[in-house]
Amino acid sequence: MSTLKNDRLLRALRREPLDRTPVWIMRQAGRYLPEYRATRERAGGFIELMRNPEMCCEVTLQPIDRFDLDAGILFSDILTIPDAMGLGLYFETGEGPCFKRSVRSEADIDALHIPDPEQDLGYVMDAVRTIVRELGGRVPLIGFSGSPWTLATYMVEGGSTREFARVKTMAFAEPELMHRLLGILADAVTAYLAAQIRAGAAAVQVFDTWGGSLGHAAYREFSLAYMQRIVQGLRALGHTEPVILFTKGGGQWIEAIAATGCEGVGLDWTTDLGHARRQTGGRVALQGNMDPSMLRAPPARVRQEVAAILDSFGEGSGHVFNLGHGITPDINPENVRVLVESVRELSPAYHRR
Ligand code: CP3
User: Fold this and answer.
1) Is 70 exceeded by the pLDDT of residue 329?
2) Whole-prediction pTM value?
3) Domains assigned to the chain
4) Which atom of ligand 1 is nearest to 74's Cα?
C-alpha cells in the first residue's frame, strides 16, 4: 500500500484524513467509451475480451487514462463463478447474460463444480496481476464478485429476470436447498476474492445487485448473512484489505450492512448520504450515490448534483464518490469528465480541518 502514488480510495475507506474525496465509477470501463468498443471489436466479443488478460488490462486502464480516476476496477464480470461451476455462460444480444444449464434441483446443486480460483479462474487472476503491474502504483485496483444471492438469481433463473419467480420459489418453498446453494456460493466467492487480493487487488467490492428484490427479513436471511460470511471469511484468512458491500435498493438496511464488519457501504441514489452517515455513526465509509441518469443532463446540472452530494455527506473523510449504480452505454464521456473534475474542484473544501 505504501507503494501507491494515489491511495485516496484506501484512506477514504479507512476514514483517514485526506486532501479531497476520491472518485471512481461503477462500470467505468464499458460501452459508453469508444476505445472500449474498439478493443471489444478486436477481441471478437465481450466473453473473449473478458478471458484475455492483456485486453482486460487495456480496457481497465482506459477510463483511468482518460479521466484520471482514483481507482481502477478489474475488468471482468460477476458471472465468471457460475461459468466456472459448469453452467456455460453466453450473451444473447438484447437479452443480456444467459446460462446453458440452470440450477433448479438438489441434483443440479450436487453437480456444481467447486471452482479453484487459480485453476478454473486463472484468466481473472492473470488479469489482476497484469493490471497491477501496468498500473505501477498509480491508483489501487478494486477486485470484485457478485453476492451469493445475486449469483444464485442468475443461476436459478438461467439468466436475467424481472420477476425473480424461480429463485424466490426456491428460497421460500425449499429454503434448505437455497441455503445449500448460497453456502456453496459464499465459500466460492470468499476463495475468489482472496485470490484476487493475493494477485494484487487493494480492495474488493461485492455487487449485491438483486438484494433489494427481497423483503426485510428475507434480505437478512438470503443475502446479508452470506455477505457477512464472506467478510468474516476474508478476515479469517488474514486479509485486511477493505471490503465494500453494495446492495442496490438496500438503503433501509444500512445499519445491518455496516454491522457485517465491512469498511465501505455502497448506496444507490434513493438514500441521503448525510442521513446514512448519521445512522452508521462513522463506523463505515459510504460510497455513492449519483443517479446515473443525471449524466444525461447538461454539464452545469451534473456539477450542481456533485456539489449537492458532497454537501449531503459533509465534512471529513469517509466518502468515496461514485454513481448509485453502473454507468449506462448511452452516456457522453464528456459528462463523466465534468463529474470527475467537479469532485476534484469542489471536494477539497470538505477536507480542511
Ligand atoms: O465496473 C467495471 O468497469 C468493471 C466491469 C464489470 C462488468 N460487469 C463488465 C461488463 C462489472 C463490475 C460487472 C458486474 C456485473 N455483471 C453485475 C453487477 C453490477 C451491477 O451493476 O449491479 C451484473 C448484474 C453483471 C451481469 C451482466 N454482465 C449484465 C447484466 C451484463 C449486461 C448485458 C447487456 O448486454 O447489457 C453483463 C455484460 C457486461 N459486463 C458488459 C460489461 C462491460 C457489457 C458487455 C458488452 O461489452 O457487450
Assistant:
1) yes
2) 0.97
3) 8-350 (3.20.20.210)
4) 4
